[in-house]
Amino acid sequence: MKKVAIVGLGVMGRPMANNLIAKSYNVVAMDLSARALSQIPGAIAPSAEALEGAEAIITMLPEGKDVQSVYEKIVLPGAPAHSLLIDCSTIDIETTEDLAARAAERGLDMLDAPVSGGPEAAGQGTLSLMVGGSPEAYARAGTLLDDMGAKRSYFGPSGSGQAAKVCHNMIVGITALGVMEGFALADSLGLDLTQFFQLCSGAAAQSWALENRCPIPGVAPATPASNNYAPGFAASLMAKDLRLAKAAAKASGQSTPFGTQAADRFTEFSDAGGGHLDFSAIYTSLREQTERP
Question: Which of 58, 224, 267, 287 could staple 278 via S-S, CB 3.0–4.6 A?
């Protein structure tokens, strides 16, 4: 599988495309944004005609409505017979299941394969992929998925990958808020925050969110907080993913009170103007709310 089309060259799609180009794939990179197109040589505007000869078509787009639009206008009309469709976006389960059914009507296999790991992992080909779809499609995609990520997990029928992703990100969002609140309290109590970070890193409070999203500038130099909260994963995207988890919980009848609170809190922060910042920037709003004695 050497000719691959990628639609969506944003924060994640661009490094994913560059990774596959570096691995000698013939990549047809597509985006509507002129700025995005300028960042990959040979990138073009999306069209059904541009999919000719593509063995796999990857989409990496912001929301379900974007994926649906691209599938209806470009992918389903233009996908070659027997090409494999792989949606790496994080979207709602219902849209994924609907598009997979429509692809099947045209004799096409579709995988939902949302990812975790951020732009750096996308560029290095070390993403974690959560995959749903038929076992046959998953087997066909094996080499390509391995070139995109260091870890892939198959969860079952269409929509299962999206289900795993929203559950995963709900845990990340809840854990992140715990880290932010812990540091806000430590700060208000006058603790040395570098020393507190070092304590937590080697104790029961250790977590991915702590190590990669410590919210205090200068404490962990590689974190977004030490780079003016430049987004590795924007707060608006965290809010969107948590709302997807909230909707999935409602649809399934499962109570997720902490997940619901996390969704509401990140949405509030994003709507107030923090959506373009890394999600760890929510810490700043927590400190602003602190009532000093």
Answer: 224
